[in-house]
Amino acid sequence: MPNSFSQVASITRQARDAANAATENDISTAYEYIKSNYTDCFKDNATMEQMMYYGWLLEYKYVGNPEKEDYCNLGQDAEQLVKYVYRGTDTADSDHSKSNIEQIRKSIDAIEQAKAAAAEQAAAEQSETSNSSDTASSKENSRTVYVTKTGKKYHYANPCGKGTYYPCSLAEAQSRGLEPCGKCVLR
Ligand SMILES: [Zn+2]
Questions:
Q1: Which stretches does UniProt call biased (Low complexity) (predicted)?
Q2: Fewer CB within 10 A of the end CB, N or C, for the chain?
């Protein structure tokens, strides 16, 4: 005995009602479920019902959202794939089913590529951040310190002790072999 249209309609309604409140987590669960089960989704009613529910959830959540078009398409493909077989008006190995499975595979590829690109982007931003800490240390090298004509130390304080102190850059003081002063630099 095939399933009825009203059973399908009831799953559609549940997904539509849940879509607005669906969180990123719910969407991720729906996506992973479809991805893991679409090649073997006709094995029982429970799997077909879950596929349709998640398919409509993605579709209702993202319909009209160009940034999430891949998810919307995937959802549509998933519910289209299952609902006719579920009602017994199509078969699992028909051309229609096969072409829908192919569509789902393409949508998943597109989503995975977008995810990889986003991860790459995040990694690039991460390395930009570490470049800016290089900039911070070169700023540190150019900070001004104070030296005397004969002293073996460089100082932050001016004056630190007796004598006449001249400003120079930290990098220059280090290149002249001067050591940090124990009183004002290393304290
Ligand atoms: Zn000093």
A1: 119-139
A2: N
